[in-house]
Specification:
Elements: E1 24-29, H1 35-46, E2 51-55, E3 60-65, H2 67-80, E4 86-105, E5 111-116, E6 121-126, E7 128-147, E8 152-157, H3 163-172, E9 182-195, E10 201-214, E11 217-222, E12 228-233, E13 238-240, H4 247-253, E14 255-257, E15 263-275
Antiparallel strand pairs: 1-3, 2-3, 4-7, 4-15, 5-6, 8-9, 9-10, 10-11, 10-12, 13-15, 14-15
Length: 287
């Protein structure tokens, strides 16, 4: 009887599970690109294993992801991120100043009558009554250099003749919570230019603002509902405050009091131009 020795070798396969890649943290500046859109694209790359947070105030993405995912996000950002551009705005203030003079005086042009009596001489004086205004025209210019998407301020007047009216206007529309006692109040225009894509179009938003001191602390309020927003081509001039539906507001806001005691009614024009940071000048061929 033969015996067969059957030896069976069982191959034991050891499966060594690979450890998942470790997530690392990176920050990606996105310039003036569409933040929410960039955030969604990054989240699609990262998936549920990582996190993407949009820091809108600082124009950047905060990403926790694997090295491979970071490489994909870096490529995506480099292709889509928009480098901030600068905008030079030439501002022209054209206005007429009116100075009023009222009162009574006696001078060489006033009427004087001399009546002689026996024991005395009587002088009868007719005072000169003054009620006149002097109108003068003036023009001044100013330049602003603003990073696209950021703000700069223009001062309208040294004081605000229609301060009470503007305060009531702000209270009626919720810009000012209650009646306040302004001090050292001034009127400003907040200008925010944004280059659309690579240009040549520029979106310009102008918002009126009152700024001063209330109870010893700085206080400012913006009238967002009467903001002016226009899209112009590079080098195109636009006039501020000519919108018919807000003419009642701007007819009072664009008036400044001068140090000489007069008032100045302003017409303000702005000409934005895309400013080349690399060449430190605006593109050739434009003033």
């Amino acid at each position: 009887m033969k015996r067969w020795l059957v030896i069976v070798f069982f191959g034991v396969t050891s499966v060594f599970a690979q450890k998942p890649p470790v997530n690392t943290f990176e920050v990606y500046p996105i310039g003036l690109s569409d933040g929410p859109a960039m955030e969604q694209m990054a989240k699609a790359i990262v998936g549920p294993e990582g996190t993407v947070t949009l820091d809108a105030n600082n124009h950047r993405l905060l990403v926790l992801a694997t090295p491979e995912q970071h490489k994909k996000i870096s490529d995506m950002v480099s292709k889509t991120a928009v480098t901030p551009k600068n905008v030079r705005i030439d501002v022209a203030f054209n206005g007429g100043e009116v100075q009023s003079e009222k009162g009574a005086s006696v001078n060489g042009q006033a009427g004087v009558q001399r009546d002689e009596g026996i024991t005395h001489v009587m002088w009868k004086m007719k005072p000169q009554v003054i009620d006149r205004s002097i109108e003068t025209s003036s023009e001044s210019r100013q330049q602003l250099l603003v990073s696209s998407g950021h703000e700069a301020k223009l001062r309208v007047g040294e004081s605000v003749p229609y301060q009470t009216w503007l305060t009531d206007y702000g209270m009626a529309r919720g810009f000012i919570p209650n009646q306040i006692a302004w001090r050292e109040v001034g009127s400003f225009l907040v200008v925010k230019p944004t280059v659309i894509g690579d240009g040549p179009q520029i979106r310009v938003r102008v918002t009126p603002e009152l700024s001063g001191m209330v109870n010893g602390s700085p206080y400012e309020t913006r009238f967002a509902s009467v903001s002016t927003e226009v899209v112009v081509n590079d080098g195109q001039t636009v006039t501020i405050g000519t919108d018919g539906k807000n003419s009642d507001f701007y007819s009072r806001f664009l008036i400044g009091a001068t140090r000489s005691g007069g008032t100045r009614n302003l017409t303000i024009t702005m000409t934005p131009r895309i400013y080349s940071l690399q060449q430190n000048q605006i593109p050739a061929g434009r003033p």
